[in-house]
Specification:
- The protein has about 220 residues and is mainly alpha-helical.
- The chain contains ten helices and no strands.
- Helix 4 crosses helix 5, helix 7 crosses helix 8 and helix 9 packs antiparallel against helix 10.
- The longest helix has 21 residues.
- It starts with 15 loop residues before the first helix and ends with a helix.
Length: about 220
């Protein structure tokens, strides 16, 4: 059903966040993506110009949705007074916990958009901007850690760590998508074990957590 136009005299035009909300609702209600910007705009009380003011295409809009997921997660973390005092391990844990809380709040949309026919998780263009943001976050963490080291010999590789954080996110995203546990508690365990494993490897500490993590993955796979 076509909605009342948002461009009638005296009515406020939709902003970027409103268009995103309309789009997410559309694909869930219709179980398909819109065929054209013209039809999508007309059916939802806006003009093409309203849409193109913020997004160049539906692909651009989909990327922006993932940007919002990331930005909202960071905003929530930074509201915490304790976050700034956390060690890098706790900061990364907090990031993943918060990010997946945001994704869980939008789970139906995320599952739909990541399971569209022909899509492959690692190659999806809609995650391109998110990859940059996640890698930059990881790079920032390692830069902070390196600044506290007294010798360059003990500094950690920024490129390897930041790429590792992205790969870790993809792993956790796939795990979360397949997670059938109540309140996705298995994903919380995977987050904790994977983050501890990464930091243990980088810190050259005993690898008990690596074994523990491997056992956890094997158990989840066999259940």
């Amino acid at each position: 059903m076509a909605k009342k136009t948002a461009n009638s005299k005296g009515e406020k035009k939709p902003g970027a966040d409103e268009i995103i909300a309309i789009y997410m609702d559309y694909v869930l209600e219709h179980e398909k993506t819109p065929r054209s910007v013209y039809k999508f705009a007309k059916d939802n009380g806006m003009t093409e110009q309203d849409f193109y003011k913020y997004f160049g295409s539906f692909e651009g809009l989909r990327k922006a949705i993932w940007d919002r997921f990331f930005d909202n997660s960071v905003a929530v973390m930074e509201k915490s007074k304790e976050y700034a005092s956390f060690e890098n391990r706790e900061k990364l844990l907090t990031f993943f916990y918060t990010m997946f809380e945001v994704l869980t709040a939008n789970r139906s949309y995320v599952l739909y958009t990541l399971n569209e026919p022909g899509q492959q998780l690692k190659g999806m263009t809609q995650l391109k901007n998110l990859r940059k943001k996640v890698k930059n976050y990881g790079k920032m963490l390692i830069q902070d850690g390196n600044s506290e080291k007294s010798m360059k010999l003990f500094e950690q590789n920024e490129m390897i760590f930041s790429e590792g954080v992205w790969v870790q996110f993809l792993f956790l995203l796939k795990f979360w998508m397949d997670d059938n546990s109540p309140e996705f508690e298995s994903t919380d365990v995977a987050i904790e074990k994977s983050v501890n494993t990464v930091f243990d490897l980088f810190d050259n500490t005993p690898l008990e957590r690596v074994v523990d993590f491997g056992k956890f993955l094997w158990k989840e796979r066999m259940v």
